[in-house]
Amino acid sequence: MAVIDAPVETDVDDSVDEAPDTVAGIRLPAVFARVHSVFSRRVIAMVVVLILLAVTLAVPVQTYWNQRGEFRRLQAANEQLARDVEHYQRRVTEQNDPAYIEAAAREQLQYVMPGEKPLVLTYPSREQHEQAQEKAREYAANPWYQNLWDAVSTPPEDK
């Protein structure tokens, strides 16, 4: 069997639009052109499938992350509520103690036991304290003879 290497003349137009076996203006053998077209179709099909898969899974994945965040927030709220319940249960048991009731009655209602003498201390209010300090500053700023004249000319306020 002999192979003849004779040039074959064909009327082939080198334009890109009409030649099926060219890629980007480069002439390819027919086998490579066919593989290239099949490969590009598969790539395009795979890209389309991946895009559809991403679009299909986007909403469920977003829902999953949202629900997971909500679950964490609810767990934190439940833990806070459990701490509040424990705090209030301690207060209820504390308030059922007779010693606590007695101490609260003495402090808040100023109750005394029979035979005890009540002693009530009254402290001046903040305004009264500030007024007294202002009077002391004015008294210290006056000359001595003015203070003497004020003491003689005005009667005491507490009588």
UniProtKB/TrEMBL annotation:
Pfam families from the entry?
A: DivIC (PF04977)
Membrane spanning stretches: 43-65
**Which keywords describe this protein according to UniProt?**
Membrane, Transmembrane, Transmembrane helix
Provide the protein name. Answer: Septum formation initiator family protein
